[in-house]
Each structure stands twice: as structure tokens, then as C-alpha cells.
């Protein structure tokens, strides 16, 4: 009995860590670091969205939840890709208590004009 012929040898990409400064991806037995400064699309993303990475080819990574596609070469050699994203990180929303206080301050109180 013979085994079936193996398929394509493309290994998977795996996010191994996320920090306040960036994320690490395990790819072909090595870890690559993507700093948020150079890859701002990931800074405000959820861990679930960041972790959902697909390797569509030898040099092609895709994050479907974020609609981000990157070449592995652009991660390994960012100096070859001088264009930078102008995406600005979102400012965090104020805490719920502060929003309630502001809303309460705008309401008219009985007996006041």
C-alpha cells in the first residue's frame, strides 16, 4: 500500500505574542517582529483579529478580519518599503462614568432655568 503524495509545503503563520509595542509572528521556524509604529493597522485591533492570520503564499500574509495583506519581505526588510501608512490610532473612549456625568450635566434640573 502506498501513501498519497504530499501537498504543497507552505507552512502556517502563527502570532506568538502581542505587546504594547507590536506583535511577533512565527514563520518558517523564525520569529518576525511587527512594530505598531511601522504596522499601525494592528495597534487597535482585537487579539482575535490579530491572531486570525492566513498564509496565502510563500510571501503573502493575510488578516481577513482587518483586511490587511502584507508581504513577508516588507516585514523582513522595511527599509525597502519607504511608504508608511498614515493611519492614526483611535483615541480611547472616556470611561462610562465620565460619559454619564457629562450627559447628566446637560439635562435640565427641576426649578432651574
Bin the strand percentage. Answer: 25-35%
Taken in chain order, the helices and strands follow as: EEEHEEEHH
Q: Calculate the mean pLDDT score and round it.
A: 81
Extended strand count: 6
Radius of gyration: 22 Å
Q: Strands of the biggest beta sheet: in what spatial order?
A: 1-2-3
* Major sheet size, sense and barrel closure: 3 strands, antiparallel
Q: End-to-end span in angstroms?
A: 91 Å
Helix content: 10-25%
- What is the oligomer described by this structure? single chain
Count of discrete alpha- or pi-helical segments spanning 4 or more residues: 3
Judged by helices, strands and strand pairing, the structural class is alpha+beta
**Which blocks of ≥5 consecutive residues have pLDDT under 50?**
none
Net shape: globular
Domain count, please report it: 1
Primary descriptors:
single chain; 113 residues; alpha+beta; three-stranded antiparallel β-sheet; 3 helices; 26% strand; globular
Tell me about this structure.
19% of the residues lie in helices and 26% in strands. The strands form two sheets. Strands 1-2-3 form a three-stranded antiparallel β-sheet. It has a three-stranded antiparallel β-sheet with strand order 4-5-6. The chain contains three helices and six strands; from the N terminus they run βββαβββαα. The chain has 113 residues and is of the alpha+beta class. The longest helix is centred in the last third of the chain and has 11 residues, at 96-106. A hairpin with a 2-residue loop joins strand 4 and strand 5 (60-63). It has one domain. The protein is globular.
